[in-house]
C-alpha cells in the first residue's frame, strides 16, 4: 500500500515547523516520519495531500464529554432518553466529532458509552476512539439524582451507580469494570443545584476506596469537584484528574502538581451563563473562566481540553472545538492546542496526541495556522481527518 505524505506547517503536539511533512504508513496505521522538508525522507509513489497554507496537527481530543443525546440540557431528559434512541443519536454525534477532527474522546458517564466504544473498535460504526467510564459513581441523593423521582426509579434510570460507604463504592467500581469501562468517574461534589452553594459529596474514606479499587483494576479516576473541600478530598484520595475544578486555590493546585494530577476546567460548561443564578454562583463562574485557569497554569498543572458537551441542542457534538477556543483566551493558542493533544492523551492514557515516528496516525489537516488563528481548528476550516492511517474525511 502506498504511503501518504501530509504537507504543510506541522504542529506535532508541542512544537511547530513552518514547512514540514508527515509520512504515514497505512499498512501499520502509524506515523513513519515527521519533520522539516528536506530533513524527512519522502517515499517515491506516495500520495501527497496538503501543501502551502495548510497545517497538520494531531487528531484533537475531548477528555470530558457525555453521550446523553438529549434535545434539552436537562437532568430529567438525560436520564429518561430511551437507551436505544440515545445510541442511535450518538452514532450521528460520533460522525460529527470525527468530521470536526476529534479522533479520541473520553466519555465520563452515560448508559451507552461502552457499547459505542465497542462498536467503533469493531469497525461497525465510524467515530473517534472512545474511552468510556460506563456509568459514573455518585452518592445517593447527590447532584445527578433527580429528587422528584422515587429512589428506585431514579436508580434504574440514572447514568450513575449510586453507592454509599467504601464497600458499595468498591462494588460500583467493579460494576464499571464489568461493563467494560476504561476509566472511573466520581462525583466528589455537587454542582450548582443547591442555590449556587457547592457541597462536597462522598467522604475521603469513600473516595480512597474508589481510587484503590480503580487503580487495582488498572483504571484511572476522574473526579468531578467543585469547591476547595471537594478538590482537596479528591486530591488526598489520589484521583488522576480534577474535572471542572471550580474554586481552585493555589494550595490545592500545588498539591495537584506534586501528585501529577491533571486539571480539566471544562470552560464550555459555563461560558454564556456567567451572569445566571445566585451571586455565589456568578462569582465562582466568573472567577473560574479566568483566574482558576491562571492558578492552574502558574502552578505548572497540565491543563486538558474537556468540553463537558452532552450532545444536546445547546452543545451539539461536533462543536467541541469551542473548548479549545475558550482555553486559548486564557492560556494562548499553543497551550490550548497542547491541552487538546499532548496533555489530553497523557490524561486519558493513550499513545496518540503527538505526531512522531511510531505514533498512531490520527491527524488533521486544517486551512491556515491554528497557532496564529485558533479558529483554524473550527469544522469549517478542516480539510481532512485521518484516523489510524485512514482518511475518514
Ligand atoms: Zn460532565
TrEMBL record:
GO molecular function, one term: hydrolase activity, acting on carbon-nitrogen (but not peptide) bonds
Record key words, sorted: Hydrolase
Domain Amidohydrolase-related: 56-392
CDD domains given in the database record: Met_dep_hydrolase_A (cd01299)
InterPro entries: Amidohydro-rel (IPR006680), Metal-dep_hydrolase_composite (IPR011059), Metal_Hydrolase (IPR032466), Metallo-dep_Hydrolase (IPR051781), OTAase-like (IPR057744)
Protein name: Amidohydrolase
Species per Swiss-Prot/TrEMBL record: Candidatus Marsarchaeota G2 archaeon ECH_B_2
Organism taxonomic ancestry: Archaea, Candidatus Marsarchaeota, Candidatus Marsarchaeota group 2
